[in-house]
Design a protein that fits this description.
alpha+beta, 2 domains, eight-stranded mixed sheet, 52% helix, 434 Repressor (Amino-terminal Domain)
Length: 337
């Protein structure tokens, strides 16, 4: 039986509700009609009006184009700054926080993450690192005017933002994941620290050393996580287990940070574009293509979680050595002051 656009829309909307009756309640308010009228629309007895289609697309963040062109070589995506212009730190963190909260509410969800940079959620393990990355993004990407002449310190993100970051970290730690990392994932952050040291953008050079210490702590924490094969919070005992992690060393493919969420309701892709901004894609054809891409890379990568102790040690020792080299450079600058 041929499915209409209306059928497909409701197929994607109804799983957002535990019960059909709850969906009908919400749809009744959206359409401004009674429940019987909603049921007629669900059955297809009454066609949705253009205004009702528009209201559904906005309410449930759906692209009508993706339904119309689903058999064409066209993929539609959403871009987070278009959804809500990023005017301050909270605007960005709230978008990610909303996503992670929604992901956590869906059963049987796992995450696939391939990156040549530090995974976004790994920054949340140590607040000092997140403060620095937000400072960088605020100046270079979002171009917040209040950061133009501000030297870095550890007060870029306020209490509300840090609370959201801690919430997101807990979501991430609970989520099972397959992650593919390059041994150079720290390079970008280390270069940023060195640049801001040389350009005089640290209020106190000791803060640059603190950042190096936290990057080493992150390296140590992720090595332990890989060894155990599950995530845990740094300030909690290792015995408090989070989601399982399969960590692979990948030097085969360099790509932008790409996350694929595999859920009981389907798959979704989040890919960095003008990092840390991201594109969201729900097109299931591309999601399946991306999943296949992950699997191909994974088979050519080296598993370093739970097994491969020798390779795992070399992988993380290489990262630690880079951090120590930067610390040496910073200490020389401090001694020359």
């Amino acid at each position: 039986m041929h499915k209409t656009l209306q059928d497909k829309l409701f197929e994607d909307i109804l799983p957002n509700f535990p019960k059909k009756s709850e969906a009908v309640e919400v749809l009744s308010k959206i359409f401004g009609v009674g429940k019987d009228a909603v049921y007629r629309r669900l059955r297809g007895d009454t066609l949705l009006t253009p205004d009702e289609l528009s209201a559904l697309a906005k309410k449930f963040n759906l692209s009508l184009d993706s339904y119309v062109f689903e058999d064409a070589n066209t993929v539609f995506c959403s871009f987070n700054p278009f959804s809500k212009q990023i005017k301050n730190v909270s605007d960005y963190l709230e978008g990610i926080h909303k996503l992670m909260k929604k992901v956590q509410e869906v059963k049987d969800t796992s995450m696939y993450y391939v990156t040549s940079d530090v995974p976004l959620f790994a920054y949340f393990y140590f607040p000092e690192i997140l403060q620095f990355k937000i400072y960088i993004w605020g100046r270079a990407v979002w171009q917040f005017e209040y950061l133009d002449d501000m030297k870095f310190d550890f007060n870029v993100i306020g209490p509300h933002g840090m609370q959201m970051a801690q919430d997101m970290l807990k979501y991430y730690v609970k989520l099972p994941s397959v992650e593919l990392w390059s041994a150079d994932i720290l390079d970008n952050t280390l270069h940023q620290v060195e640049y801001h040291v040389n350009s005089g953008h640290f209020a106190n050079l000791e803060d640059a050393l603190t950042l190096c210490d936290r990057l080493k702590d992150l390296t140590d924490h992720m090595e332990t996580t890989a060894k155990l094969g599950y995530k845990f919070l740094p300030h909690q005992p290792k015995e408090i287990k989070g989601g399982k992690i399969k960590l692979y060393h990948n030097e085969m493919v360099y790509t932008s940070n790409t996350i694929l969420f595999d859920t009981s309701r389907g798959k979704a892709i989040y890919s960095s574009y003008t990092n840390p901004n991201f594109l969201k894609i729900n097109d299931q054809r591309l999601c399946e293509f991306t999943f296949s891409f992950f699997e191909k890379i994974r088979t050519k990568s080296i598993l370093i979680s739970e097994q491969g102790e020798s390779h795992r040690s070399k992988f993380f020792n290489r990262m630690r050595k880079k951090v120590e080299n930067l610390k040496t450079k910073i200490n020389i600058q401090i001694e020359d002051l």
